[in-house]
Structures are given as C-alpha cells and as structure tokens.
C-alpha cells in the first residue's frame, strides 16, 4: 500500500517551515512595515518593492480553471527543474535512497539526483523507446522513492504507452513522476484527470514549451493535496517572483493564441518530418509527439559541426544511449525550418 508518511524524509516530517511576513499577515492594511521592503518604491514603474504572494493564489486560481484541477492540487516551481529538485529533497534521503530513470530521457532527473546524493538506477528504454517494465520492477527495493517517466519523452519524442504508465502507477508504492513538458503537442491524453485515482502520482508540466514562456521560469506539479502541501513547505518562500506571476496571469488570458501556435508547430513538425524522410542522408525520422524531431543521420557529429558553420544550432545526441548518430531538432519558424533543410541539402559537397 502507498503510505506517504513512510516515504517522507524524517527531517521534512519534523520541519517547521519558514513563516514569512506575508504569511503572518496577509489581510488588507494601509501601512506595511513588516517585511523590511523599500517603502519609497522601486526604480521600476511597478510595485516591485513588495514581496510577491508566496502562495501564488491568483495564479493558481487561473491555472485551476484552465486545467480543471483544484487549486489544492497545484504546486508552482521556478521551472519544472525546481519541482524535480523539491521531490528529491522531500522524499529521498541522501546516501541511502534511490530512484529509477529510463534513459534516453531528460537529463535533470539524474543531475538533480547527483546534487542530492541520491542513487539513480537505470532501466533503459527498449529499442522502440518504450518502458522495460520487467527491468524497472527488478530494480525496485525498499529504498526506491521515485520512478521518473517522461511522456512525451525528451529526446526521443514519443509518448510512452498508457498501459505501461498505468502498470507502474498501480504496482509501485513510491512516487511516480510523469513529466508532461510536451503534452500539448501530443495525441496522447494527459494524466491530470487521473490524480484522484492515484495517490502516488505527480504530473509535471511547464510554461517553457507550448506556452512560449521559458524565460519566465514557471513549472507546475500536480498531485494529491498531501504531496502538494509537502512541496509547499519545503520550497523557498518566494520562489515565484512578482513579474512572473503577473505575466503568467496575463498569458493565461490568451489560451486561444497558444492553441493556435501549438497547431502551427504540430503542422510544421509533420511537414518537416515528411521532408526529412525524402532526404538520402537521413536514415530515420522518429515519430514525434513533441515540438522537436529526433533523426538518425550519417555522421551526426559532422553534420552538427557543419550546421554550426551555417549558424544553425541543433542538439547533438549522438553520444546518448540508444541515440547513436542522432540529432534532436526543435521545430522553428517556417523560415528557420527552410534554412535548415536548405543547409542539409547543400551539404553533399
Ligand atoms: C524542457 C523540459 C522541462 C522544462 O523545464 P523548465 O525548468 O520548466 O523549463 C521539463 N522536462 C522536460 C522533459 C523538458 O524537456
């Protein structure tokens, strides 16, 4: 049985969280002399002299209505990367506990584990980039706290089979973190509406990809109220700054515009995949549910260096397990995609 209290680190169980000035008084008042801010103002036009809402209530309310998830099930991080780190710091005892990752996948699960001195156990994806369930199962022991699953996966671009994800959710008594950074580009359904069925599920999403706000640093974790409360106690008090809270709130009014961009990116992705498939130097174009394409190409490193000489930067994944001779290419604007294709065509000589 899933027992959150048993998963939690002892020091976090006992943690008395920092109580900010804005926690101790959050009502309306005329004069705020409680937080050592600069009462004269700021060199900017806005009210940036004041600390932001540590609980991001307005922003969570807006996200709640768009995502159809209760506010108490939403946590906001300074990028998903902060959510990943907070899961380690809340659940994994350094030097003792372990987590499972399924490479090739997003690098931060392992980097963050290393920073937190947590062992990563590795169950590589199968040749079709799907989960190796038997291998995952064989790695789990009493100290396994988190299984990291990324769907659609970076850098392979495919979604993981839903049956496999459900199998892990139903059989693992630790945290199952499903990273849905690319879900807006996928045909697959999100696991967001499944939160009620799985008390061990954490869904990660981000404003960095489809929402076009990588510069603001805003990531989301969705989970049971109990898990969200833990992350909220462990986070730095003002982890989401005022400018990000304001701008994200504005962006959320433009869902229509974002959906148009998603559609345009997906159309360009599929068109570019078609063009790549016709090119002799490209050995394979992997199916993508994301805003990038993974391609297998002769002498990937040479192609990568050549593209650099043309001022085009792609991601060289050729030294990554199961991605030998692969490049990961983000879908650009129409013009950028054409430039890339033209460069590849003119490479022969
Ligand atoms: C880009 C990406 C993220 C986003 O991280 P942020 O810190 O929110 O920018 C998370 N997970 C995966 C798999 C990604 O590719």
From TrEMBL:
Keywords: Amino-acid biosynthesis, Aminotransferase, Histidine biosynthesis, Pyridoxal phosphate, Transferase. The modification N6-(pyridoxal phosphate)lysine is found at residue 209. Pfam families: Aminotran_1_2 (PF00155). PROSITE patterns: AA_TRANSFER_CLASS_2. One of its GO terms (biological process) is L-histidine biosynthetic process. InterPro entries: Aminotrans_II_pyridoxalP_BS (IPR001917), Aminotransferase_I/II_large (IPR004839), HisP_aminotrans (IPR005861), PyrdxlP-dep_Trfase (IPR015424), PyrdxlP-dep_Trfase_major (IPR015421), PyrdxlP-dep_Trfase_small (IPR015422). Its EC number is 2.6.1.9. Its cofactor is pyridoxal 5'-phosphate. Belongs to the class-II pyridoxal-phosphate-dependent aminotransferase family. Histidinol-phosphate aminotransferase subfamily. This is Histidinol-phosphate aminotransferase.
